[in-house]
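hi! just following up on the protien thing from before. the input was this:
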Amino acid sequence: MTRPLDGYDAVLLDLDGTVMRGAQPVAEAPDVVNELRQAGRVVQFMTNNASRAPEEVARQLATLGLPADPEDILTSGQVAASLLASLLPAGSAVLVVGTAALVTAVESVGLQPVHLASDQPAAVVQGHSPETGWAQLSEACLAIRGGAKWVACNVDRTLPTERGLLPGNGAMVAALRAATDREPAVAGKPARSMLDTAVERIGLQHPLVVGDRVDTDIAGARAAGLDALLVLSGVSDPVDTLAAPPEQRPTYLGADLRVLRGSLDETRIQPRPGWRVEFDQATGDLLLSSDGSSSDPLDAVRTLCAVWWGEHSGPVQVRPCDDAAAKALEAVGLA
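and the predicted 3d structure came back as:
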């Protein structure tokens, strides 16, 4: 029997929506990660959330029962700072829209953080902060319009929390896009630089990427040529997954990290036993049928994706052909 993670020497693990939602852990996620480590697997955490320094993230993980060193954590703020250092002369002024953690990241690469457009910054770096408002965006707008380079730590439109989905850094980036008619360089996922940095850190060549967003986690993995597991514990759902373009399609699909306790082959996106999918040429719909031998609605989703992705892309309507198929579609939000 295939053992969990056979063929992979490490796990590159997203945090928000995958391991935790706000201050709360996703179901059994800390236990699963600890089990992976005890089994000798290397785990590197990657987060697009630039609001906290690695030391802060490590402390939060410890409160969830998941000990971690700062070196185990890579943030988009660190990647953004490295990108700026490669673009600017040492000592250049950088207008920071973000938290103190992002300020520290900028300082650590020999650049000078500032907060006003009148300081003549050579660049603007923008990361998530719950304190960002009109005043901060206005300074950034003036600097960008004045010719400053613009680096966004990430463009996640939403942030999964214990209260639900809240505005993410991408929502604030969208405001500056509208105000400047400019497009930022993006440091975090889906940019492959973040994945490349993580792979270089661990020194291993065959990691599995695990995350909850097709447009960042999975797209980043695909850009870096890595296999990916999408978990449905955060942002992306089966509707997003089925409609995903080729560059955002995961290798595996699971409800949450608990699937890592079993064989990954059981979560691979391919036709699964018990389900049949046909394409209705007349309507353009997918027709889902069950033979009654499978009770896993996610196996239905895996089969739907395998068939739809074979020759098609984008949103599609799915119609059940029997009661079991109807119940499966309702369970995963595809009814």
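The two ends are 35 Å apart (CA to CA).
The chain has a mean pLDDT of 95.
cheers
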